[in-house]
Amino acid sequence: MLDIKFIRENKELIQAGAQKKRMEFDVEKLLSVDTIRRELVTSVEGRKADQNKVSQQITVETDAEKRNALIEEMRTLKDSIKADEERLAEVMKEWQLQMVSVPNIPDMSVPEGESDADNVEVKKWGDAQTFPFEAKSHIDIMEELDLADFKKGTDVSGFRGYFLKNGAAELSLAIWMYARDFWTKKGFSFMIVPSLVRRETLFGTGYLPQGEEDLYKTQDGDFLAGTAEVATMAYFADTEIPKNELPKKVLAFSPCFRREAGSHGKDVKGLIRVHEFFKMEQVVLCEASHEESVKLHEEINRNTEEFIESLGIPYHTVVNCGGDLGLGQVKKYDIELWVPGEQKYREISSASYFHDFQARRLNIKYRDEENKSRFVHSLNCTAIPTPRILVSLIENYQQEDGTIRLPEILRPYMANKEVIGK
RNA sequence: GGAGGAGUGGCAGAGUGGUCGAAUGCGUCUGUCUUGAAAACAGAAGGCCCUUUACGGGGCCCGUGAGUUCGAAUCUCACCUCCUCCGCCA
Hints:
The protein is α+β, with helices and mostly antiparallel strands. It has helices at 4-9, 11-20, 27-57, 64-99, 138-144, 150-157, 166-184, 199-205, 228-235, 290-311, 357-362, 388-396; strands at 120-125, 148-149, 163-164, 189-192, 196-197, 216-217, 223-224, 239-240, 248-257, 276-286, 315-319, 331-339, 344-353, 364-367, 373-375, 377-386, 404-405, 419-420. It has 12 helices and 18 strands. α3 (27-57) packs antiparallel against α4 (64-99), α5 crosses α12 and α8 (199-205) packs across α9. It binds one RNA strand through α3 and α4.
């Protein structure tokens, strides 16, 4: 959500932003609804003021005759107010629908482009290693070492289902605990948050009204969130955060559920794209300053890069083009890890900032230096998702004998084991 | 799942149809006093929206949304949340 006054004064910017994001949005349509809205509000409120004045003349002491006269006088006024109020309600509904569809303006530095194919590499780390033997896919490696069961996965859970077993299950726990240590050392507070969330939380974070088909829904009308960001942001909804607690940095853990509605044919095997997974997410709230947002955006993205570097997995970072940005995002980086089995980079992390887009919808405020109430800025970035991280971890660390060497940093979390074998 | 009770400002808490954006207490801020602080005394203080160059004017907000009424924190309905008891489950 953006400020309607800002939209009014910057309609060209808004329209250009929507164009850059390849989103259909007509700012003139919103503004014409807004004009009608304001005219109606002014006229209705003027008559309400009259009505209130007359009402105040009627008190307990008013005699019956005068009372009846005044009530009669107001009857036509009331009817006219009512008619316009009904019209206003309809206009407001349309106005709100338009307002939640206004795309946030992408940053100047966001490249033009249609889709993820147009994202621009901004950093590359590590060399895609060549193996002196024939490299296998994580699926083969894991099945041979009895680390996963995809057959049972689909039998039990359905399409894209999986079981993690033995060393892979332990490795998942190890990564979680290492991530928890890594980020708490950087000043993040650790939270385990719900995945089962109410509709409003998804509106607040910008996943609704668009994108409903990607979410699992319960018979009570609640949803299973696709990221811990949803509950974490909603945790702060309708609150005022003391300024000295900003920036607020949270490492949030939760199960995540995604229907992957638009990607039926893609990545149907293995652990790349699954319906149910776990994720550690960085969520940050800060003062309403573009510079602060940019600084923290770089910082949280760098955190994940460092984490990946400590695991020794080759990656590159891309800046997402306009067409690959969500409704509320101002700018986004994706970190993609090298997957030897596919000979390409696959997304592992996504870092976005929103300015006050989410905070407006969720009503998250603080008081600035002048004691003025303002909306915070919000940002988030994947810390680490499991099991997807296992794909590149296992494939990059596979050995000729079919076993998996463990990155040293993880060994303390794996009872000092060095290798995952049979 | 069944029965009952409750939701008021930063907090506690009064208010059951008009004089209530809301008593009172605590807390907060500003003065006076003081070398300074405390105490005491005096005073101030919410959000959203429309309008105005500005000063200002106006509307809405007592969990949320509808309704009754000339007039609603107060009455009616629905929903949400919390509490108590019973049932069920871990």
